[in-house]
Amino acid sequence: MTAVEAQHGSALRRVTALVLRHWYILRGSWLRIVELAYWPAVQMVMWGFLSQFLANQASYVAQAAGILIAGMLLWDVLVRGQLGLSISFLEEMWSRNLGHLFASPLRPIEFAAGIVTMSLIRTVVGMVPVTLLALAFFGFSIYSLGWPLVAFFFTLQMFGWGVGLAISGMVLRKGLGAETFAWAAVFILLPVSGVYYPISVLPGWLQTIAWALPPAYVFEGMRAVLANHAVRLELLAGALLLSMVYLAIGFGCFLWLFNGARRKGLLSTQGE
Predict the structure, then answer these.
(1) How far is it, in rounded angstroms, from Cα 267 to Cα 99?
(2) In 93-125, which positions are buried (b, 16+ CB within 10 angstroms) versus exposed (e)?
């Protein structure tokens, strides 16, 4: 085994250890698992009944049943991606464990990889039961989107991870007084994401902002699949490209703020 292979193997073990730590915490509390699916389920039921009502009207929704439910489910993929990462990070701060983690050989990129992986696990654990409830309650399957669903899912996850990493870095640098931003960060983007309506209904200046964000491409692409049975590859490509850019920016912000916190000795002084 070469030195490079040994180094990569050690990095993978450290990332796996961090993921297992958070997995054991999650698995050890059924309340935590229920919470992952609780809010998506509540929203799905609410929007599901609303869409059933609207489906009886001569409306846009009547022509494309399930658009509201699909929008809600995909929006929650973004929310869960960002919150899942932020919660994994905050749990380390609440337990005053950051100093211990970074006294080990764990590197910031490995820490980021660990909490990103845990975010993906949290999202899947929370969202899969809700998609099955949508099928049981309303006869709507998000999986009817086909292979574009995979692209939509990972695009929203990557964007959520980018936001989550930037917010985690800010909380690390500014302390738990900035914790509120971890819970509210992505919701400010809801009006310009086109979750429940086309981007074209927004004022021109807001449309410019919307098209600078990956969710607009995802939800426009979702409506094209459901309403017109068309896969708009240009929307998928734009969403994936922007998500990768935002993920890189988010990690860059996290690394910059982490290094600043480490120089100031903040890693061992954060906690409840």
Answers:
(1) 5
(2) beeebbbebbeeebeeebbbbbbbbbbbbbbbb
Give per-residue pLDDT as tens, 246-256.
999 999 999 99
**Are the CB atoms for 167 and 185 separated by under 8 Å?**
yes
DSSP states of the chain as a string?
A: --HHHHHHHHHHHHHHHHHHHHHHHHHT-HHHHHHHHHHHHHHHHHHHHHHHHHHTSSSHHHHSTTHHHHHHHHHHHHHHHHHHHHHHHHHHHHTT-HHHHTTTT--HHHHHHHHHHHHHHHHHHHHHHHHHHHHHHHS--GGGG-THHHHHHHHHHHHHHHHHHHHHHHHHHH-GGGTHHHHHTGGGGGGGTTSSS-GGGS-HHHHHHHTTSHHHHHHHHHHHHHHH----HHHHHHHHHHHHHHHHHHHHHHHHHHHHHHHTT-TTT---
Task: Of 109, 112, 120, give the one whose Cα is nearest residue 92.
Answer: 112
Locate 205 and state its tokens: 């200046």
Measured from the Cβ of residue 12, the count of other Cβ atoms closer than 10 Å reads: 12
In angstroms, how far is CA 148 from the centroid of its own chain?
A: 17
4 pLDDT above the threshold of 60: no
State pTM to two decimals.
0.82
* Tens-digit pLDDT profile for residues 61-112: 555 557 788 888 899 999 989 988 988 888 888 878 777 787 788 888 898 9
CA dist 84 and 96 (Å) reads 19
Domain range list for the chain: 3-263
The residue to which tokens 């464990």 are assigned = 97
In this predicted structure, the answer to whether residue 180 has a pLDDT above a threshold of 60 is yes
d(CA 76, CA 222): 14
